[in-house]
Amino acid sequence: MPVTLHVKNSRWIQAAGSTYGNHFRVTTYGESHGGGVGCVIDGCPPRIPLSEADMQVDLDRRRPGQSRITTPRKETDTCKIFSGVSEGLTTGTPIHVFVPNTDQRGNDYSEMSLAYRPSHADATYDMKYGVRSVQGGGRSSARETIGRVASGAVAKKILKDFSGTEILAYVSQVHKVVLPEDIIDHDTLMLHQIESNIVRCPDPEYAEKMIAAIDAVRVRGDSVGGVVTCIVRNCPRGLGSPVFDKLEAELAKAVMSLPATKGFQFGSGFAGTFLTGSEHNDEFYIDEHGSTRTRTNRSGGIQGGISNGEIINMRIAFKPTSTIGKKQQTVTRDKKETELIARGRHDPCVVPRAVPMVEAVVALVLVDQLMAQYAQCNLFPVNSDLQEPLVPVLEPEEFPLSRIRLLVCMFTLLAAILGNIVSRKPGSKSTEMYP
């Protein structure tokens, strides 16, 4: 949360922090070439099964050195939980996760201690703070996202157990290679399709073209950008709060906080501006379960800033990596023009490793919004005539195990109450303080 600091001339300001969320709060810490990175998760519900292995799956998808089209930096990114979990269950107290840095090479950044990398945060960090961490870019490095991916794995687990919610991201564009939108079926897309190749594009033919595009610039010491598409299936209805906390606004804020992001659109996006209202509107109907659905999904699963239970889809644009091995014109910290050829180990294209990062921050938004929705609108009995269930109606094989456990507990409690009533003799009084 923001920290208030006192400055000269009796002015008070709020210092920007590294925390996201109101109910499910995540603070990330650490730098690329420091001792390590990590996060603190505050507000996680208790009694959720959790271990390092749950986080390690996504951390392994994010880690450097996976293939020739990612940075050659070698890190195992092995996480350790230091608090908030006891005997395999969350305790409801802050969860502290730490990942050590083991393959730093600070000498690679000697030139960049004096000269600014074009389009990098070097110059703006100096402009803002008057000091910066030179090695690895400090907090501006994508290594900071380890904390987000670890906490996002917890959020994904909560959403999956609660409502069967699935969050899947994949690469849909690298440089000029664009995956046609109608090729991928968002209703049936599976994680193994995305993970079947090193670029994380679910279509094998386009994946090979994307890999070739990255290889072409990698050997020249250059870089390219791309687009990551993210979908959310079985999203609880009713998430998002007008007017400033609309769901798409929160999602945009979260994904645009990732390094190298330059654009965000959801649903029909900018293409929707070429349609008329009659062409763009998603017409309603009642499905076989009695739920209100839409025949099309140009709204991208969000209407009026609130989720409607349809698939949420969004696209995030990432710019080419700033640090490249080609000669560029720049200036030094003492304001002298110079040339720079950056050394070090860097991704020729960030989008393959950005996939789990996008999934993570989307999960953080949704779980925070879910907790807010329960606190505001589901604390008391709902208006069943108008309010749709938070959780979409699922087929039996899709029904989350946690929901079954909840129903069992509810029926057990009801049986105990009824049994207690039946066992009492007529006219007897309860000895309980709160009968």
UniProtKB/TrEMBL annotation:
PANTHER family in alphabetical order: CHORISMATE SYNTHASE (PTHR21085:SF0)
Pathway stated in the Swiss-Prot or TrEMBL entry: Metabolic intermediate biosynthesis; chorismate biosynthesis; chorismate from D-erythrose 4-phosphate and phosphoenolpyruvate: step 7/7
EC class: lyase
InterPro entries: Chorismate_synth, Chorismate_synth_AroC_sf, Chorismate_synthase_CS
EC code: 4.2.3.5
Catalysed reaction equations from the record: 5-O-(1-carboxyvinyl)-3-phosphoshikimate = chorismate + phosphate
HAMAP family: Chorismate_synth
Protein name: Chorismate synthase
Residues that span the membrane, as ranges: 404-423
Lineage: Eukaryota, Viridiplantae, Streptophyta, Embryophyta, Tracheophyta
Textual note on the cofactor: Reduced FMN (FMNH(2)).
Database matches in Pfam families: Chorismate_synt
Organism, scientific name: Vigna mungo
